[in-house]
Amino acid sequence: MRKQKLVEQLEQAPSVEDRDRIEHQLEQINTALDFLDRPGSKEER
To answer: Are 35 and 19 in contact (CB under 8 A)?
Structure first.
């Protein structure tokens, strides 16, 4: 849900700084989701 909201903000972002900030947050979300989606990530620890 947060990712969707950021994508919508990115489309309306008035400045390059705003877009950069939003893109950085989206990268963090994608990294976290990728980590959670890894098969066996809980068993390996």
So the answer is: no
- pLDDT surpassing 60 at residue 36: yes
Handedness of CA 32, 1, 3, 37 (dihedral sign): positive
This prediction has a pTM of 0.66
Q: Which of these, 3, 10, 6, 11, lies nearest to 36 by C-alpha position?
A: 3
Torsion-angle region of 40 (φ positive above 0: left; ψ -120 to 50: alpha; else: beta): left
Q: How many CB atoms lie within 10 A of CB 22?
A: 19
Gap between the Cα atoms of 18 and 29, Å rounded = 17
